[in-house]
Amino acid sequence: MSQFFQIHPDNPQPRLIDKAVEIIHQSGVIVYPTDSGYALGCCLGDKTAQERIRRIRQVDDKHNFTLVCRDLSELATYAKVDNSAYRLIKSLTPGPYTFILVASREVPRRLQNPKRKTIGLRVPDNRIAQALLETLGEPLMSSTLILPGDDMPLTDPYDIRDTLEHSLDLVIDGGYCGFEPTTVVDLTGDAPVVLREGLGGVSVFAGL
Known about the structure:
Helix content is 28%, strand content 24%. The protein has 208 residues and is of the alpha/beta class. It has a single domain (3-205), classed as DHBP synthase (Alpha-Beta Complex). Strands 1, 2, 3, 4, 5, 6, 7, 8, 9, 10 and 11 form an eleven-stranded mixed β-sheet that branches. Strand 2 (30-34) and strand 3 (37-43) form a beta hairpin.
């Protein structure tokens, strides 16, 4: 049976953030708000929790997880970022973008694309997510909360709890945060390639 925390979207209660991070450290799988909808999250190094997310999503071992980071310095720890990519990412973060980059040695191999050795990373513009990341001290391994057979992610924390209460350890109600996914941009080549157009605008990539 999952716990249910109502956390203020503008002023997250430190006591509840601390409890949420404690649950994450105890191999917990949580649902938390971002700037582009609700997401599943767990500890970066927790293989068991990662497998639980795979079962919830019913995805195979080729599914790409995203590392949700608190800032650019953390992102640069987990990916190889050249100067031009760094400038571009800096201009777009925090925000609703996921960047595909070559993974550094800090990223467990099970999280990398098996052929390309890449990883998706993002820095969300959401105060609850940022408070979680600040207290956790490392990225959250995350996946969009889209259930098998659905085209759109779940958006209502009460529906999420009712549907997944036996599969999760915690649902964080952070209010409405939309349902449009992030824009995914591949930065591994000579020029940015938009792989998925979502909430983040793409005009900035024209001519790059």
